[in-house]
Design brief:
Chains A, B: InterPro entries: Homeodomain-like_sf, HTH-type_TetR-like_transc_reg, HTH_TetR, MT1864/Rv1816-like_C, Tet_transcr_reg_TetR-rel_C_sf. Chains A, B: Keywords: DNA-binding, Transcription, Transcription regulation. Chains A, B: This is TetR family transcriptional regulator. Chains A, B: One of its GO terms (molecular function) is DNA-binding transcription factor activity. Chains A, B: Pfam families: TetR_C_33, TetR_N. 2 copies of one chain form a homodimer. The first copy, chain A, has 2 domains: about 60 residues, Orthogonal Bundle (Arc Repressor Mutant, subunit A), CATH 1.10.10; about 140 residues, Tetracycline Repressor, domain 2 (Orthogonal Bundle). In chain A, about 40% of the residues are buried. The first copy, chain A, is an all-alpha fold and about 210 residues long. Helices cover about 60% and strands about 0% of the residues of chain A. Chain A contains 10 helices and no strands. At the A-B interface, helix 5, helix 6, helix 9 and helix 10 of A face helix 5, helix 6, helix 9 and helix 10 of B. The structure holds a DNA duplex (30 and 30 nucleotides).
Chain lengths: ~210, ~210
DNA sequence: TCCTTATGCTAACGGTCGTAAGTTTACTTC
DNA sequence: GAAGTAAACTTACGACCGTTAGCATAAGGA
């Protein structure tokens, strides 16, 4: 838990118009602390300031609150997840089946590559902690919507192409996402568990009601 | 966040041999704080002591650490979940199909009735926080095993009776639990989301590979 | 060159936390 | 009634936290 007890990196002051750059550095430092310590409680005003190499009150130029930093971290993480899903879709060919697997595996890969971030994104330390802070409920309400839509669309393509059968495409999409989330979250939480090797593909195939090839 | 700023409930001291009763009171108070504030960070040595009506250091008679309280809370929660699953199984008849649904719905009901507890049980604030504390990794390793076995057995009965088909019963059981966990966890985290009404039965039926009746 | 102003810092306050050391209270036994 | 001891308390220390108020410094246009 010791974070540079006395680390004066002699940080150069930003140029006149580039003060906002410090905001990115703050968020990046917060993400670093989260990834290293694995505990969102490690993201504190002072710890972030230490990591960046600035004085703690200097953060108030860029964030009104400490929860505002957390919100920025989570927003950035969701943007990264969305970008990763889009990249996977762009790299895939036109087969709806392969596109569905691509986006699902990209989702799972994000959670596996950044378990602490995933845990924080969906851990729900929000509703309680943001009482009386600058973070409003609407800031956090629609955070994962775009990512879920990408998944829903990919499943819809499969249904349209006749590769997937199901009585209710929307409910199936929700179920598929819930299954992915269960796997992703549990993988992010437990150190090492003997998962069946093909557990991901099994869940995707089953929940998407994919027909045998 | 104000917890009895000065609440002297004039707690009577326990009788000579019943000092261990305070331990139960401490755990109960910790659970109360968790359920009310919804944040495991609300379980602190001093807040628990205030709630019980004792001085903070008095806790050290019964717990070596603050993490030890958290461990006790989680252990108790897992015991409650297990008891709830067994109760549901005992109340069910002999039809394997109905027994499977009974245990699955009991699982989901626990998460819905005690969302903060569920979040804490599976939230994984463990691996990081127990560094250098009295809580060892083995204390937390096999916490949910019994509950998962109850689920696995219920699915196994369905397979044996021919009500469920699947190529790998163990993998299917894991997948079923992951699906339940995804739904339970997400329900415990989000305030209100328009879930498809029959989402639970859909996931259970699909992941268990239940045959049409 | 000087003045404005964005940028970041120092100092400080009040609060909470975990924990150690030593002490008081009251039950039980003799 | 005396003694022993379990049960719980008081006091205190050091650390970290979020936040406020005011100050220094340097960039860049006039």
């Amino acid at each position: 838990m010791v974070n540079e007890p006395a680390a004066p990196p002699a940080r150069p002051r930003n140029r006149r118009g580039e003060g906002g750059r410090l905001r990115e550095e703050i968020v990046a430092a917060a993400v670093e602390l989260l990834d290293e310590n694995g505990d969102e409680g490690a993201i504190t005003l002072r710890s972030v300031a230490r990591r960046v190499g600035i004085a703690a009150p200097s953060i108030y130029r860029h964030f009104p609150d400490q929860p505002a930093i957390m919100l920025a971290v989570v927003q950035q993480a969701f943007a990264q997840l969305e970008a990763q899903l889009r990249t996977a879709l762009d790299a895939a060919d036109d087969d709806p089946r392969r596109r569905l697997f691509a986006v699902c595996h990209a989702y799972l890969r994000f959670a596996q590559d950044h378990p602490q971030r995933y845990r924080t994104m969906f851990g729900g330390v929000w509703m309680p902690a943001l009482q009386g802070t600058s973070v409003t409920r609407s800031d956090v309400a629609s955070l994962g919507d775009t990512c879920i839509r990408l998944l829903t669309d990919a499943l819809g393509e499969c249904v349209t192409a006749g590769h997937a059968g199901g009585t209710d495409p929307h409910a199936d999409a929700v179920a598929l996402w819930l299954g992915l989330h269960g796997l992703a979250h549990q993988r992010a939480v437990t150190v090492a568990y003997p998962w069946p090797p093909d557990i991901a593909d099994r869940m995707i195939t089953t929940l998407a009601h994919l027909r045998d090839t």
